Amino acid sequence: MLDPAPSIVHGPADLLTTIPYVLGYHPQQSIVVVLIADDGRLACGLSVGRHAPDAMIVAESSTAASRADASRAFVVGYGPLSDRERLTKIADSLHMAVTVQACLLVDDGRYYCLNDGCPCTPEQGAVLDPAGSVIAAEMTLRGRVALPSREDFGSFIEPDPDAQERTAAALSHVPGLLPDPVAVVHTSLDIASTGGRLSDEQVAYLAVALQNNDGRSAAWLATTGETWQHDLWLDLVRRVPEHCVAALANLVAWNAWRRSEPALAWAALARAMHARPDNTMSQLIGFVLTAGISPATLPWPLPDGTDLEDLLR
């Protein structure tokens, strides 16, 4: 099946329709910085609460722009009209690091262009009507979602107690040490890649395989940004008992980051860290998320002989 053609943004209304799908949720009381690469692709989007210090917003956005090799940026505020002057100052400061093409403010269903002398919106703003843009349909076709708020991402990774109980029962019949955990991982991925859903017994075997360093590494290296992997890891993170959840939550986070879904990645990473606070995989993924590294700039799977920890230093 061919991938859908990339969405093309025509003007501020399309951009504002796109942002919730980039973030994964509809931003409120936030400042969003969208970074664009030289070829016109959206490199990444950052969202912070509107009460964050201006200096922090500019510093984080500048660092992300450098890492993503971005050529342009858009600054978008979601808040009251009284934020106009502050947003303009943030855009002017960020302009020292990357060209800020537009500064916009969204308030109460209307949007305002804050670029000096720009005629793209009247003084009283323009009505923001996402239904008038094809972007929403295109993003849905790609499997993108835009939840009402960031907090709603917790529902994606909430455990299913009945499924956990079934997996726990199946685990009692699985040996603690598997002869070939890597083979179990690859067999599970093969089933999922062809549209199959793992049985309780297969989930149990995979959960044990992921407790092994080699099995865990094999799963991580095989996890890119594909939708079937997204569905697999989200399904399994709900079904395994809590003592097995860290590795799977990390795989949800990694897949989500590679799909440019940072809100889901952070939610999954939080669950992994809660289950096993000291696990190295969570620490590495957390570094990638915090550093604002673009998935497009990190080859995956890594070339033979490349050490991820060295690459990220």
Features:
313 residues, alpha+beta, Cytidine Deaminase, domain 2, 2 domains, six-stranded mixed sheet, 6 strands
What does this structure look like?
Helix 5 crosses helix 7, helix 6 packs across helix 7 and helix 10 runs antiparallel to helix 11. It is elongated, with a radius of gyration of 21 Å. It has a 6-stranded mixed beta sheet with strand order 2-1-3-4-5-6, sandwiched between helices. The relative contact order is 0.11. The N terminus is likely disordered. With 313 residues, it is an alpha+beta fold. It has 2 domains: 138 residues, 3-Layer(aba) Sandwich (Cytidine Deaminase, domain 2); 158 residues, no CATH class. The protein starts with 10 loop residues before the first helix and ends with a helix. The protein contains 13 helices and 6 strands.
Concise description?
This protein has helices at residues 11-23, 54-67, 84-94, 135-141, 161-171, 181-193, 200-209, 213-222, 227-239, 245-258, 262-275, 280-291, 308-311, and strands at residues 30-36, 42-49, 72-78, 99-107, 110-113, 126-127. It is α+β, with helices and mostly antiparallel strands.
